[in-house]
Amino acid sequence: MPGRARRPAMGLMVGLAVIGVLLALRILSPATGQATWLADAARDFVSLSISVVIESLPFVFLGIVLSIGVQIWLPEGFLVRRLPKSPALRRPVLSLLGMLLPVCECGNVPLARGLIVRGLTVSESMTFLFAAPILNPVTIITTQQAFGWDNGILVSRIAGGFLIANLIGWIYSRHPRPEALLTPRFQEECSMEDHAGQATGKVGRSVQLFVRETGAMMPALFIGAGIAGLIQVGVPRDVLVSVGSSPVWSVAALMVLAFVVAVCSNVDAFFILSFGATFMPGSIVAFLVFGPMIDVKMLALLRTTFTAKTLLQLTVVVALCSAALGLAVNYVL
Questions:
Q1: Mean pLDDT, the chain cut into blocks of 10 residues (333 residues total)
Q2: Contact indicator for 250, 244 with CB cutoff of 8 Å
Q3: CA–CA separation, 234 vs 45, rounded Å?
Q4: Residue 315 in contact with residue 299, Cβ under 8 Å?
């Protein structure tokens, strides 16, 4: 038990130490034109990594707070009782739950973990996890503001996100052993929650859960942000932009870009707006659908909950569906 208590605190300390080192490097790195290419690359890496962390951090904490509300403060069975009994209807309803929770993909990971603890199946939590970042009001409004109703980008993003999330939920609802999709550590946490004592009260349990979830999420977020910064420094964007006019390669290029830059779904429409004059509409749609579901930062966060094999399968399914959607928009609309 002492080991369990130390792990979240250790993770939190590691995360704070990493961000402290990044900030120190950013402050101490030279800002003059005499800097070498290596110094410039290091400064870009630190700046990009910190920007991903700063952009994601508020939503991660919001997701943790919502997760605590679901796990501890909602009455037992409150959410499950209000969902349709039929799995075929429960998944669409869970997809639309994101309309009530303006949280981007970073915050939905701890919230989805809380939903599993409170009785949702793994496949149902996946449906929510992948639909909510796209079907939330902030994402819809920013996409409409960026692209309006032109080229069917907004409608394709909403419809594509809904369909892919429900397809994933349906696929994994047929898994014979859904618990095998989860990491042993998260299975252990679910078991601990089942046997959690009431002696500490709701406030005490909330504090314990906040520390535990923060300790689990922060290292993953920092690692994902670091990888995103490293890849962005190493991959020249000119290569991606050069294939913008190809119906096929433009889709692949912007999906790679979405995977690398790891921009939150609440603001990704404005990020990709500058590419609108160069890339075809289908590639924009693929970027806006694939990125909120799978990117380097999300994979690091999701690794706290799902096994590596599960994440590989999810990445392949989401990538194929997003590519098919992008190609359909390019060739049909």
A1: 50 61 59 58 79 78 80 76 85 86 76 85 93 88 86 93 96 93 87 59 83 79 77 69 78 90 82 80 94 90 93 96 95 81
A2: yes
A3: 9
A4: yes
Half-sphere exposure of 80 (CA within 13 A, CB side): 14
Instruction: Report the C-alpha gap between 123 and 86 in whole angstroms.
Output: 14
> Alpha helix locations (H) across the chain?
2-28, 37-68, 78-82, 87-96, 105-117, 122-131, 137-147, 153-173, 184-194, 201-234, 237-241, 249-261, 268-273, 281-293, 296-302, 308-332
Tell me the C-alpha to C-alpha distance, in Å, between residue 261 and each of 32, 215, 229.
26, 24, 8
In Å, how far are 44, 56, 165, 172, 279 from 17, measured between CA atoms?
20, 18, 36, 38, 40
Question: SS3 for 264?
Answer: coil
d(CA 119, CA 76): 9
Write the CA distances from 320 to 36, 137, 163, 292, 308, integer angstroms. Answer: 41, 26, 13, 15, 18
User: What is the distance between the alpha carbons of residues 172 and 162, in angstroms, rounded to a whole number?
Assistant: 16
